[in-house]
Design a protein that fits this description.
Elements (H helix, E strand, L loop, with lengths): L1 E5 L3 H9 L5 E3 L2 H7 L3 H11 L4 E4 L5 H12 L5 E6 L2 H12 L3 E7 L2 H9 L4 E4 L1 H6 L4 H15 L4 E4 L5 H10 L3 E4 L1 H6 L4 H17 L5
Parallel strand pairs: 1-2, 1-8, 2-3, 3-4, 4-5, 5-6, 6-7, 7-8
Helix pairs in contact: 1-3, 4-5, 6-8, 8-9
Bound molecules: erythose-4-phosphate.
The site of erythose-4-phosphate has 11 residues, from helix 7.
């Protein structure tokens, strides 16, 4: 499973890239607002940090304006992936962009039928938001399982990008279902390293090693 960082914070992205775990980045208008930086400038910087897909979202509601915005964004770097909403105009834009070889991430997906539409529109990625589904008392992961089954039934090439990931259980469940990608805030990805027995074992090995009085090299 590929790991994307769901952030527009370039310091966090650099740290994650240094671990070798970073396969791409997703941003959205709220994350750009949080960064306090100019959209085009921050996307350019992120694209220089990672060679993987960097999602940059259009904000228009109509196809023509979405295309104009996409043209500005895809000119930033070859690894820009245009993020469009799951609407009629968003999917028209998806079809037009992917036909021209541009990567497209269809966002704000909340049903398996929506995911089916995105695949038929040639989306490179579909982003079902599991955390926001959980927030309204439904099981977000059941959506991922349904989309996996549908995409496998018809051999769609669209990658399932699990979004709105809030904690390690979301990552585990997404991996068990066979999602292609998950995007999470770096804080969630960093939690995956943690296990109390790893920390305890390391502590006792370090203590015993100190008693040997040896050094390596
Ligand atoms: C995905 O691309 C979105 O940016 C993101 O995962 C949304 O997450 P949230 O529901 O925590 O805002």
């Amino acid at each position: 499973m590929k790991f994307f960082a769901d952030t527009a914070d370039t310091a966090e992205i650099r740290e994650l890239a240094a671990t070798g775990l970073l396969d791409g980045v997703t941003t959205n208008p709220s994350l750009i607002h949080k960064s306090g930086r100019k959209f085009v400038e921050v996307v350019k910087e992120i694209c220089a940090i990672t060679p993987g897909p960097v999602s940059a979202e259009v904000v228009a509601m109509d196809h023509e304006t979405m295309m104009r915005e996409a043209n500005v964004l895809r000119a930033i770097a070859d690894n820009v992936c245009i993020k469009v909403p799951l609407t009629v105009d968003g999917l028209k834009t998806c079809k037009a962009l992917t036909s021209e070889g541009t990567l497209v991430n269809v966002t704000l997906c909340f049903s398996a039928n929506q995911a089916l539409l995105a695949a038929k529109a040639g989306a490179s990625f579909i982003s079902p938001f599991v955390g926001r589904w959980d927030d309204i008392g439904t099981d977000g992961m059941s959506l991922i399982a349904d989309i996996r089954q549908i995409y496998d039934n018809y051999d769609f090439g669209t990658e399932i990008l699990v979004a709105s990931v809030r904690h390690p259980i979301h990552v585990l469940e997404a991996a068990k279902i066979g999602a292609d990608v998950m995007t999470a805030p770096p804080a969630v990805i960093n939690k995956l390293f943690d296990h109390p027995l790893t920390a305890k074992g390391l502590e006792s090995f370090a203590a015993d090693w100190a008693k040997t009085g040896q050094t390596i090299g």
